Amino acid sequence: MYQLYITIKLLILLVFLSNISGHARSQSLPPTQVIDSSPSVTITFNGRNLIYPALDKIPDLNDPVVKQWVKELDLSKVPNLPMSNGGQVSYDQPNCESETYMKSDQGSWTCQKHAAPDDIVTCPKVGHWGLTYDDGPSKFTPKLLDYLNKKNLKATFFVTGSRVVSNPLTLKAAYESGHHIAVHTWSHPALTSLSNESVVAELKWTIKAIHDVINMTPIYFRPPYGDTDNRIRAISKAVGLITTLWLPEFDSQDWSLVPDPKKSVDAIVQTFNSWMENFPKMTTGFIVLQHDLYPQTVDAAINIIDKAIKVRGLNITTVARCLGDLKPYVELFNNSNSSSGNKNSAAYNHSPSMTLMIM
After folding, report:
1. Where is the NodB homology domain positioned along the sequence (predicted)?
2. Average pLDDT in the 213-219 region?
3. SS3 breakdown of the chain: % helix, strand, coil, rounded to 5?
4. Residue 86 lies in a domain
5. Which of 134, 212, 227, 254 is catalytic?
6. Is 247 part of any domain?
7. Contact between residue 128 and residue 285 where contact means Cβ atoms under 8 Å apart
8. H helix intervals, the chain
9. Among residues of the chain, what percentage have pLDDT more than 90?
10. What is the distance between the alpha carbons of residues 163 and 185, in angstroms, rounded to a whole number?
């Protein structure tokens, strides 16, 4: 059963990648200057300017760029499911007790802990730790990068578009150091509280910002708070993204250090210790939720890794590599699979038997 689980997950990933459309390469150079303005932000690339939406806000749906993105996508398979929070944009987890939100086929990861067959929730091989950091790049990320590089470790960075625009050179440094860059939306909202069009805008602007800096188009995506359901899954799939989550027990809780100054890094280390106590009993690897937005979370990350590298049999790597994916960008995959077609299709092939493999 375990070998079948691995085989099915890898087959699902391969089918998904084979259907991702090719994206035009940008010829722009990495940004050298960032200028904040309202209601937009302009990044200067080697003498030419690129304009982005205002930072940390839902992008404007009246923007012709967004309208064109929505027009080009096939959203016909997106189920008609209600938005959380009554459709009011939320920058927190949705209210799981709302009768207007939860439907029998909602498939909410936040409220029902429902993982779809094609959600990535763990590393299939025993001993593999999918190292991930959300919400950056921040001014504290370079400290983490320096540490990881010294230890010759690679991580997956789920970045927000607003932080990419604010810290483009940090993103460039992470990519050039061999780390895996992935999508974490533009402004970090609870995606289930957004309209279909707003979700598209959040994802596509982030993809564009990443591509403008590293000249690669990301494939992997993590929704803020892990907040996804069957509607959000269908939209992200149409955009060409693989949803990556984590098992609830592998939330490092490092985010709790920021609002609670009395809480110490030791509390996060204790969480890590509990994982290691169960490590010999694990039948798969795991993916951990961590963050690089604040100094407290970066310090916690370094403290944890200092201990993790001493654990025998633990292989710390990126999410893509723990899945056996050595080409986690559209351009790399397309270069080796030039015959992959279906311009706007990014759908998996589902079968009922695959649903059982995630349990």
Report:
1. 127-319
2. 96
3. 40, 15, 45
4. no
5. 134
6. yes
7. yes
8. 2-18, 64-72, 109-112, 141-150, 161-166, 168-176, 196-214, 230-239, 265-278, 295-308, 319-322, 330-336, 352-357
9. 68
10. 10
Distance CA 243, CA 265 (A): 29
- 47/313 Cα distance (integer angstroms): 50
Q: Report how far apart, in Å, the C-alpha atoms of 286 and of each of 41, 278, 341 are.
A: 37, 12, 33
Whether residue 54 lies inside any domain: the answer is: yes
**40 vs 274, more confident:** 274
Q: Is the link from the previous residue into 39 a cis peptide, with omega within 30 of 0?
A: yes
Q: Angle at CA 24, nearest 5°, toward 20 and 27?
A: 145
With 0-12 / 13-18 / 19 or more C-beta atoms within 10 angstroms meaning exposed / middle / buried, residue 313 is exposed
Write out pLDDT tens, residues 161-199. 999 999 999 999 999 999 999 999 999 999 999 999 999
Q: Is residue 293 part of a domain?
A: yes
pTM recorded for the entire structure: 0.84
**Letter for the amino acid at 199?**
V
274 pLDDT above the threshold of 80: yes
Q: Could you say which of 128, 184, 188, 291 is catalytic?
A: 291
Residue 183 near residue 218 (C-beta atoms within 8 A): yes
Concatenated DSSP letters of 56-81: TSPPPTTSHHHHHHHHHS--TTS---
The yes-or-no answer on residue 350 being catalytic is no
The rounded distance, in Å, linking the Cα atoms of 312 and 331 is 36
Q: Catalytic site residue 36? A: no
Q: What is the dihedral of CA 176, 291, 135, 154, to 10 degrees?
A: 20
Residues in the chain: 359
Give every strand in the sheet of 48-53, ordered side by side.
Answer: 33-36, 40-45, 48-53
Q: How far is CA 160 from CA 29, 88, 197, 278, in A?
A: 20, 21, 18, 32
Per the structure, the count of domains in the chain is: 1
The boundaries of the domain holding residue 216 are 2-45+48-79+116-357
What's the CATH code of the domain at 222?
Answer: 3.20.20.370
